[in-house]
Amino acid sequence: MERVAATAIIDALGRVTGWSAGARAFTGYRAEEVVGKPATGLLAEQVPAEALAGRSGTVAVRRADGRRTEIALTACPVLGSDGGTTGYVITADPPFQAAPTLADQAFQQASMSMSVFDVRQRQLRSNDAACHVMGIPEEALLGRFFPDTVEQAPHSEGFLRHLRQVVETGRPVRYESFTGSPTLNREHAWSIEMWPLRDPAGELTAVALAAFDSTDQYLARLRLALLNEAATSIGTTLDVVRTAEELVELLVPRYADFASVDLLDWVLGAEEPPTVPEGDISLRRVAHGSANEGTPEAAVRLGDAEVHPAASPPARALRERRAVVGQAGEPEFRRWVDERNARAPEGRPYREGVHSMIAVPLQARGVLLGAVVGVRMRHPDAYVTDDTVFAEELASRAAVCIDNARRFARERSTALALQHSLLPRGLPQVAVEVAHRYLPSGSLAGIGGDWFDVIPLSGSRVGLVVGDVVGHGIRSSATMGRLRTAVRTLADVDLPPDELLTHLDDLVTHLAADGSGEEVAELGATCLYAVYDPVSRRLSLAAAGHLAPAVVLPGGEAELIPMTAGPPLGVGGLPFEATELELPEGAVVALYTDGLVEDRDRDVDRATEEMCRALSAPAGSLEDLTDNVLKAVMPEQPSDDVALLLARTRALGADRVATWDVPPDPAEVAHFRQAAIEQLTRWGLDEAAFVTELVVSELVTNAIRYGEPPIQLRLIRDRALICEVSDGSSTSPHLRRAHAYDEGGRGLLLVAQLTQRWGSRQTGGGKTIWAEQPLTEGPLPTADE
């Protein structure tokens, strides 16, 4: 700092009438503090007599900060027009005008801002760095109260509070402040340390401070905090779009004034990742946000695709697999801004001041997913190298979350498609009228293994199945498919419910013991199998660890069927017990999986009661009743799959069934052949007489020849004409091809050729051979008709 001589003017009465900048710099007093006041107020002691007489000498002066200093003064009289003395011009050549010491140079040339304040927070010294930050020369600061030199703001109040704290406590303080400055074009972070200055007597006379510009470290901490926050705020759901939105919410407004996430189309679909093209690249907008409400500066709407030219930052970022920065003034940056203004001119006012952008590729596990773009308008700092490093790290973390969500969505979609392909599409309306619902869970665990089925059986009977596989995902869906196929295969053999579950349990046990070492997904699965006979109106059912179904009698209340659940599949060695009950026509049986009534936040018994109440309520149709049950019982967000199957029973009365006991005499075959034809005539089915006569003749003859008494013939008229012949032998027949000279062996082959389907089933007293013919008549009339 340039040093000048201190000059003061004193009138004849000893009052100060003039005060130079040098005097202010040396003493710390401003002109308004001394002009008009006695000069003796500036003295620390009386002026020596020899100095007064010679008008020069060393005088002790008290500075504004209270310090005592000696100075060499020279007084020059000011003469009036009459030659008399009207005052004096006092000049001082202070000793500090000598060459500055090494300490003075270190203070003045330090790279950090340094200042000294007196105990009343008035400026005493400021080095060059401090003056540069303040934008004010030291001469304009000296002696001034600190609040008078800065704007009123929270950071200024904090600075003053810490200055006073040092004076009051006599201890140093250290703190951080984030603020701007008149000469710096952005806000800076400062690490400030203040400490007390004491004279040789130990009295606190001033406060010194040093302010270190820690902006880089501060911004690095902010970036690290954002990365830490990303670990918990991005990827909270396994949803691709929501994950992209969470990334935008993290970036705006702390890192960007506008941010967008654009993905390659295959990420939102089920295709395999394609090769990134070398030229223009099409990306689809899935999320964006800005500091302006409604994101008015967005030129691309959510869900729309945009083709990025090969030279654009997003396209370059994808091809080069690195962050690409664009700055105002660069041709490609201007082209990018102009293209957006042309595409969405209504957002032009919100794009004013855009000066920097960054495009970062989203890549996970070596696969490119899309790009995230950040734009700065209000933020004064342009993106720099440190920003690219941070952006790539953040994008890498976000990309893993997006890829996880993509993989989950793909697996869920695959599992759902697999499960839907395995579930029945059009259920047969045979001995029962059925309505069904399958609802996959919204759980992050994925699709479960719930299933249901309706299986037509011989004799107009029907098998009703519902089951649940432990776990979720593709494996559970595949397991469900295996179990459903096994149940259908065993049902085709016409096994009773308890025997069917025993064979199914054996199958699961064998799979678990095959020695592969892999866990068998079927273990722990549950299943309920029921058979309803519309002729006897009896329902027979057994369960393997499954919930008991509910039944609603016409005009009655719904109740759970009392039955033994049995062990889950795969336990082995434990029996399954069958339950039988007789149902009137119009009774409704409800089979369901545990997802309907079980949930971690619900009581199972209470949910079951709600289900029974809903089943008991009147409904216009079975479909409406199904919907009413789901509305009454289902939680808002089920944690497990739900399968619900409702079956309303039908009954075949005596007018649709004809039964004859057959004596074991071949001569009686013709009699029963004629009886069957007469029954068809009464039913108005004369067109089926020829085939029926042949079928009755062959089956009755075989029973008499190869079976054992008692023998029974039964005709059932349902949606098909069914002919059944039962006998006391358990030996099942089988088709064989008769040779040219064989006398027999052609009967069953002929029956198989003339009927729609045929088969045999074991009964408690033997077996039953049956054959079905399709009927061309319309739907059967109901009992009410």
Explain how this protein is built.
- The protein has 785 residues and is an alpha+beta fold.
- Helix content is 31%, strand content 27%.
- The protein contains 19 helices and 31 strands.
- A 6-stranded antiparallel β-sheet has the order 13-12-11-16-15-14, with helices on both faces.
- Helix 12 packs parallel to helix 13 and helix 15 runs antiparallel to helix 16 (622-633).
- The radius of gyration is 49 Å and the shape is rod-shaped.
- The model is unreliable at 738-744 and 778-785 (pLDDT under 50).
Identify the notable features of this structure and list them briefly.
785 residues; disordered C terminus; 31 strands; alpha+beta; 5-stranded antiparallel sheet
User: Average pLDDT across residues?
Assistant: 85
- Into which percentage range does the β-strand content fall? 25-35%
The strand order across the widest sheet is 13-12-11-16-15-14
Class inferred from helices and paired strands: alpha+beta
Computed over alpha carbons, the radius of gyration is 49 Å
User: So how many helices?
Assistant: 19
User: Unreliable stretches, pLDDT < 50, 5 or more residues?
Assistant: 738-744, 778-785
Please give the number of β-strands: 31
- Net shape: rod-shaped
- The helicity comes to 25-40%
